[in-house]
UniProtKB/TrEMBL annotation:
The chain holds residues 1 to 341 of 553 of the full protein. It comes from the Bacteria. The keyword DNA repair applies. Keywords: DNA damage, DNA repair. This protein is involved in the repair of mismatches in DNA. It is required for dam-dependent methyl-directed DNA mismatch repair. May act as a 'molecular matchmaker', a protein that promotes the formation of a stable complex between two or more DNA-binding proteins in an ATP-dependent manner without itself being part of a final effector complex. This is DNA mismatch repair protein MutL. Belongs to the DNA mismatch repair MutL/HexB family. GO terms for cellular component: mismatch repair complex. Residues 211-329 form the DNA mismatch repair protein S5 domain. One of its GO terms (biological process) is mismatch repair.
Length: 341
């Protein structure tokens, strides 16, 4: 075959393969966009585990009519303009890929109204050239992205989808992670037209109320608070003392500069902080937030941004270990000090 450029829609579908694994990945990408737009209210409608519909409405800044088509194009982003921006990234997104990818494997409509615009507009793409069509619409300030029939045109992907129930449980899990990343954001979640979860916004001081709602009060009732700062690194959050740790590692939420992570280095540090108090059958149980200067961490390691790379990995590891050691070994106020003498 001669060398030829891929049609845009095919290039987008290939890119979608990296980030959009299943409905929950769509939910993640769309909500990250909503949060980046300053929204503090999210209405999430899921139908049939997300395969029929994923619709997210936010009250964020909205997208100008003139930029709607561009928002759907690949490598189009309002979040960075240079490599320097990427090194000091504050937003969750920056790749300019999500909407292009999702719209190439679904029927996507984007409806938006910035506060300064009197009329809302709607865009969708059709056909191989990914040219967006625009029509006037009715919508409050903010944005709705409606994703229908995910993977309708990529049967190989569709085949890997599980039952509606399983797909919804992945979405639910993703929404929990998001709910614990921003206490100040209200979330209302519907599945098949029924409200299945509601997370009202809470002030920072009342974060434990949301944690109780998301992961259950057996964690929030026993968890110890941690807040430690050292040389520009801060670790805060809650960890369960060893005796309250779970048998299954289902409460392990770790955020780095507001992004949920699975990080081997940090997992290792947390595990080590517990020492041998857990035995074989219990897992570290925590909701933790690590904050460090954006230039200290590279977020552009993985397309779905599940991983980061720390510039001073050893230092971060030791800081996490030191911050948690006391609490994680149970040497806290609820244990009489003489037991350790
Ligand atoms: P990225 O988030 O990496 O910039 P996306 O494809 O996810 O790329 O989104 C493209 C652009 O569309 C964003 O940079 C943003 O300007 C705009 N956008 C997407 N979703 C929203 C939203 N919910 N509210 C406001 N703007 C949005
Ligand atoms: Mg995005």
């Amino acid at each position: 075959m001669p060398i030829q450029l891929l049609p845009i829609s095919l290039a987008n579908q290939i890119a979608a393969g990296e980030v959009i694994e299943r409905p929950s990945s769509v939910v993640k990408e769309l909500i990250e966009n909503s949060l980046d737009s300053g929204a503090d209210q999210l209405f999430i409608d899921i139908e049939k585990g997300g395969r029929r519909r994923i619709r997210i409405r936010d009250n964020g800044s909205g997208i100008d009519k003139d930029e709607l088509a561009l928002a759907l194009a690949r490598h189009a982003t309002s979040k960075i303009t240079s490599l320097a921006d990427l090194e000091a990234i504050q937003s969750l997104g920056f790749r300019g890929e999500a909407l292009a990818s999702i719209s190439s494997v679904s029927r996507l409509t984007l409806t938006s109204k910035p506060a300064q615009q009197t009329q809302a507009w709607q865009a969708w793409v059709e056909g191989r050239d990914m040219q967006a069509q625009l029509t006037p619409a009715s919508h409050p300030d903010g944005t709705t992205v409606d994703v229908e029939d995910l993977f309708f045109n990529t049967p190989a992907r569709r085949k890997f989808l599980r039952t509606d129930k399983t797909e919804f449980s992945h979405i639910d899990e993703m929404l929990k992670r998001i709910a614990l990343s921003r206490f100040d954001v209200k979330m209302v979640i519907q599945h098949n037209q029924k409200v299945v979860r509601q997370y009202p916004a809470v002030a920072q001081e009342r974060a434990l109320e949301r944690i109780a709602k998301v992961v259950g009060s057996s964690f929030s009732d026993t968890a110890e608070m941690v807040d430690n700062e050292h040389f520009g690194l801060r670790l805060w959050g809650w960890v369960a003392p060893p005796e309250a740790c779970r048998h299954q590692g289902d409460v392990q939420f770790l955020y780095v500069n507001g992004r949920m992570m699975r990080d081997r280095l940090l997992n290792h540090a947390i595990r080590q902080a517990y020492g041998d108090t857990l035995g074989d059958d219990r897992s570290p149980t925590y909701v933790l937030y690590l904050e460090l200067p954006p230039a200290e961490v590279d977020v552009n390691v993985h397309p779905a941004k599940h991983e980061v790379r720390f510039h001073h990995a050893r230092q971060v590891h030791d800081f996490v270990l030191q911050s948690l050691r006391g609490v994680a070994r149970g040497a806290t106020s609820n244990v009489a000090p003489h037991q350790y003498q």
